[in-house]
Amino acid sequence: MDMTIDADPGYLRLHRRGDLARRAEAAVARLADCDLCPQACHVDRTAGDAGALAAGAVCRTGRHARVASVGPGFAEERVVVGDAGSGDVVFAWCNMRCVYCENADASMRGKGDVLDARALADAMLDLQRAGCPTINLVGPSHVVAQILEALVLAAEDGLSLPLVYNSGGYDSVDTLRLLDGVVDIYTPDAKYADDMAARRCSRVRDYGTVNRAAIAEMIRQVGPLRLDPDTGLARRGVLLRHLVLPDDMGGVRPVLELARALGGPGMTVAILDSYHPAHQADRVPGLAAPADPALVAEARALARALDLEVVDLGSADEAGPRESRAGPNRGAPSPSVSALPSVG
């Protein structure tokens, strides 16, 4: 693992060698029998959203990505946001079905616009022109092929910002390997230590096994989180997140012990205090309660006792409401993606 931090994002080197385009082509080819996320639906997504839905694709996403919003975001960790806000590209639909999703309109009902590769590339370039320090890809697990395809065009036209891969942690290792040298900063969730809780709350199988392997691969690629000494902003590495659920349904201790085991002492974690009952949370006993401040405080104390580096988020009231990792961040208004060109 290379621990150095280059001046340019790695995807620019891959682009200059032609490797970025080759990876995009390989990923797009897999859409015809899609296995790009752990759901492995083996659906032909090239037929478009309607065809993907009819064929049973969990993500309901066809050939092009559907995007819920694009714009500067201020609700992420301070090391990602900067003064101008992270350049958020929030993808609609999702490869999970979290019953407590705070952004169900986008993640569950697909609110947003379909953008082809050119429009998605232009959205990234607009965020760079707006002064954002990063491109923050929110909920990207089911649209890696579309992201790579757009990134080829964006790199050709001058994109040079670090990429943040901001996922729910339900990611395929094979697909993550397509992003080796492409993504600079990974900010995955570790939602659950227990597969049964994952099935009840997010309708996914084998979350614990999949999540552990995904985080290990992310750490292999980019290592621990490193900050720019001049700006204090993240430049490269992994920041692991855990949203504290009522009654500790996610399993704080085993999740933090996993972070320590995979990342070693100093692994950076964020303990999220933003849970509130949303969507269909009342369908799972216990999830109808709000976050317990005492449990959140205990989680942060445990993280420090395990020699983990805890990112201080402040309170939800101070930072503004933080959506789930599959949803947009609303610390500041984000321009609607509807202003961008879309594909019908």
TrEMBL record:
Annotated residues that bind [4Fe-4S] cluster are located at 94, 98, 101
This protein is called Putative pyruvate formate lyase activating enzyme
Q: From which residue to which does the signal peptide run?
A: none
Ranges of Low complexity composition bias in the record: 332-344
Could you tell me which species this protein originates from? Roseospira visakhapatnamensis
- Matching InterPro entries: Aldolase_TIM, MJ0674-like, Pyrv-formate_lyase-activ_prd, rSAM, rSAM_sf
Documented EC number(s): 1.97.1.4
Q: Where is the Radical SAM core domain?
A: 90-210
Cofactors: [4Fe-4S] cluster
Q: Which PANTHER family match?
A: FORMATE LYASE ACTIVATING ENZYME, PUTATIVE (AFU_ORTHOLOGUE AFUA_2G15630)-RELATED
Instruction: Tell me which UniProt keywords the record has, alphabetically.
Output: Iron, Iron-sulfur, Lyase, Metal-binding, Oxidoreductase, Pyruvate, S-adenosyl-L-methionine
